Amino acid sequence: MKIDKAKQLQLLQNLTGPSSAKAAKDASQAKAQGSSTDTTDKVELSGWKGQVASLKAKVQAMPEVDEDKVARVKQAIDSGTYNANGRMTARGMLKSQLLDETL
After folding, report:
1. Per the structure, how many domains does the chain have?
2. Distance (Å, rounded) from C-alpha 91 to C-alpha 93?
3. pTM (predicted TM-score)
4. How far, in Å, are 15, 56, 58 from residue 53 at the CA level?
5. What is the pLDDT along the chain (103 residues), one digit of tens a residue?
6. Do 73 and 100 sit in the same domain of this protein?
7. Do 82 and 76 meet the contact criterion of CB atoms below 8 Å apart?
8. Phi-psi label, residue 34: left if phi above 0, alpha if psi -120 to 50, beta otherwise
């Protein structure tokens, strides 16, 4: 499975989006009900917000293709030293399929 920049950003958005959207919805419902006492539970993830923002910046700064790795593999293929490990290939395919099913 190829995880490109857009997919990584989407995964990071999913980490922050639903909880903040739910909190906003809960707050608007409490205001709509006109309750004078605040009886809703509140969760603040401010510590995570900074980490997620940092991760987003790192993902956006990453190139979509690892040119160094591509060059190393091309060189190995050209020199005849590239050895595709069947077990690792199968493991990667299964891992990719499992990730696709869970996401």
Report:
1. 2
2. 5
3. 0.34
4. 11, 5, 9
5. 566 777 777 777 777 665 555 555 565 565 555 555 567 887 776 777 888 888 899 988 888 888 999 999 999 999 999 888 899 889 999 998 888 888 7
6. yes
7. yes
8. left
DSSP character at residue 37: S
Q: Quick one: 51 and 87 in the same domain? A: no
Of 17, 16, 23, 8, nearest in space to 103 by CA: 8
Do 73 and 97 lie in a common domain? Answer: yes
Domain that holds residue 96: 66-103
Q: Does residue 36 lie within any of the structural domains?
A: no
Distance of CA 60 to the CA centre of its chain: 12
Cα angle for residues 34, 45, 39 (degrees, 5° grid): 25
The single residue listed with the structure tokens 């293929």 is 77
In this structure, are residues 8 and 41 in contact, taking their beta carbons and an 8 Å threshold? no
